[in-house]
# Entry
Amino acid sequence: MRKIQMVDLQGQYQDIKEQVNTAIAQILETSAFINGPEVHAFQKELEDYLGVKHVIPCANGTDALQIAMMGLGLQPGDEVITADFTFAATVEVIALLQLTPVLVDVDPDTFNIDIDAVKKAITPRTKAIVPVHLFGQCADMDAIMAMANEHGLFVIEDNAQAIGAKYTSRKGEKTMAGTIGHVGATSFFPSKNLGAYGDGGAIFTNDDALAHTIRGMVNHGMYERYHHDVVGVNSRLDSIQAAVLRAKLPKLNDYCDARRAAARSYSKAFMGQPHIKTPKTVNGCEGICDTCDCHVFHQYTLRITNGKRDALVKHLQEKEIPCGVYYPIPLHKQKAYADDRYDERDFPITKQLVQEVISLPMHTELDEEQLAFITTTVIEFVNAQVQDVLV
# Structure
């Protein structure tokens, strides 16, 4: 059996090696390293793929979130509601801009932001909601957009983990993740479903005026060289990363299908296991439906409900099966973002998830032998722990 990787970037590279190497060599020959033809071509191709009017490439996903908030004109003290159970970048940019983060609990099945918690958190100072499309599927965007319209709020989609996913509205209309709110942001970190070979990110919007503002912001606030019309930052996608992303973008749907196939293998193997909760999709199919397109499984995350999650992590490591705990500490408990405003009683699901979640290897190169070894190892360990308790 091949060595199991948490993310197998080397295996994926072999399939696009010739195209990537040729494109990089051409960039080196032309020396068009910043804002070169590869960047502009990738921008247009991603706009076509997403069905969105404007894609603005930038240096990384964190910058994408920050610049999106800057472009919307959010001011210090404005409240921004987001999920407590996610990576710190989402709340980090809120704090950097001196906005006021308002963290709320999440749904126990999809791990995405809890709609009722958002409703309760809205105040006259609320200016924006940042739904995080965690692990590869959209939050409930129908409900979020309805609340935003009712209260005059901006919606900034954190789409770092869900590029390629589709959201089906209550009306049955399908829209690409990241293109539903006022603005969306994504990351092209190498391990992402559409990953570069370094840092990269992008901002999406259908708002012409907002797109114009953001295009200046990513380049020091310039629309004309040395004319600084807005306060900006230095955040540009370099040509080499754009070339890699151009090679991968036509394969993104296939990458998503491969991840879904791996997820189906996992979920089917774990069916009927009382102490293993498999991830559920927004349509409730638990990832085993052959036609599901709502989840792209950036992570395949289980819940181990018998209190043995940490022991399972150790056991998998001993068996040379990589795994991850995303995320071990709620944001409201992180030293940088702790605040007396938060009441522990408002985060029951997040507090439970940080004790139970474990993410298994997930990438496009997983084979049947590897999947069988992983699932068998997990099941045997969990069942052995139950037997020990019974004895």
Q: What stands out?
A: The chain has twelve helices and 14 strands. The chain has two domains: 9-250, 252-390.
